[in-house]
């Protein structure tokens, strides 16, 4: 089990903690900054696809020899409202846009996860926390917008003794542009998960499956 006591900062270049879902965006960020990451945190909040994402996150952390910790957040599954928490039939199909995807919002999810990650960073003496929000999410998820990132950066910086920073280098990028980065890194995207319905195989119909397919095809990569 990964604990703070077992995570040393012997390599001073490894001073970043990443919020890692196991999806395309955060896995790409993990690979791009692998030499600088001291810990990956995956949050299990009881989503339909949690077990699939966690499995993918574990795979890439083992591949890159990056410590990985899964943090349970049962209260979100029990008390929050979102179609991500209500079974596969609650997930909308169709295009990835605000008119279709607002039901998938998990209230203040990124704010909660980043607050916990900031606590780990301060405890470990890490310099920064990383998140892989991207431009395609801005209209749907308020906790992915540039304004939110700027506000959380200020809050984390102000609220930590060692002045931890929030880094979100993909904020202005599309998923297609993120996959282009991953292509140069030879990332195996078959070991990532996007489908919000969960299950043993991606449904291919929900908006996240469609967005994934579009990004892979735009980069001349197989749809996996």
Topology diagram in text:
Blueprint: E1 16-19, H1 24-32, E2 37-44, H2 50-64, E3 68-72, H3 74-79, H4 98-101, H5 109-124, E4 128-130, H6 146-159, E5 165-167, H7 175-184, H8 207-218
Parallel strand pairs: 1-2, 1-4, 2-3, 4-5
Descriptive account of the structure:
This protein has 224 residues and is an alpha/beta fold. 38% of the residues lie in helices and 10% in strands. It has helices spanning 24-32, 50-64, 74-79, 98-101, 109-124, 146-159, 175-184, 207-218, and strands spanning 16-19, 37-44, 68-72, 128-130, 165-167. It has a five-stranded parallel beta sheet with strand order 3-2-1-4-5, with helices on both faces. α2 links the parallel β2 and β3. The relative contact order is 0.18. The mean pLDDT is 92.
In short:
This protein has helices spanning 24-32, 50-64, 74-79, 98-101, 109-124, 146-159, 175-184, 207-218, and strands at 16-19, 37-44, 68-72, 128-130, 165-167.
Helix percentage range:
25-40%
What strand order characterises the main sheet?
A: 3-2-1-4-5
What percentage of amino acids are in beta strands?
5-15%
As a whole number of angstroms, the C-alpha radius of gyration is 17 Å
Instruction: Please mark out the parts with pLDDT under 50 across 5 or more consecutive residues, or reply none.
Output: none
Shape: globular
- Count of helix runs: 8
Q: Give the termini separation.
A: 31 Å
> Could you tell me the number of beta strands?
5
| Nearest-integer average pLDDT | 92
- For the report, how would you describe the main beta sheet? 5 strands, parallel
Secondary structure class reads alpha/beta
Write the H/E string, N to C: EHEHEHHHEHEHH
């Amino acid at each position: 089990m990964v604990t703070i006591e077992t995570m040393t900062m012997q390599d001073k270049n490894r001073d970043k903690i990443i919020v890692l879902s196991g999806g395309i965006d955060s896995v790409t960020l993990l690979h791009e900054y692998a030499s600088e990451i001291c810990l990956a945190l995956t949050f299990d909040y009881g989503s339909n696809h949690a077990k699939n994402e966690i499995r993918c996150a574990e795979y890439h952390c083992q591949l890159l020899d990056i410590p990985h910790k899964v943090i349970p957040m049962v209260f979100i599954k029990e008390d929050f409202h979102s179609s991500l928490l209500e079974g596969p039939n609650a997930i909308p199909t169709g295009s990835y846009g605000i008119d279709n995807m607002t039901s998938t919002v998990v209230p203040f999810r990124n704010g909660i996860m980043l607050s916990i990650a900031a606590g780990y960073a301060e405890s470990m003496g890490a310099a920064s926390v990383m998140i892989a929000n991207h431009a395609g999410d801005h209209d749907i998820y308020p906790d992915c917008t540039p304004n939110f990132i700027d506000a959380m950066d200020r809050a984390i910086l102000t609220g930590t003794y060692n002045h931890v920073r929030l880094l979100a280098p993909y904020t202005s990028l599309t998923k297609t542009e993120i996959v282009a980065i991953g292509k140069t890194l030879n990332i195996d995207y078959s070991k990532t998960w996007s489908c919000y319905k969960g299950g043993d195989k991606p449904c291919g119909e929900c908006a996240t499956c469609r967005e994934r397919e579009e990004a892979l095809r735009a980069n001349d990569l197989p749809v996996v």
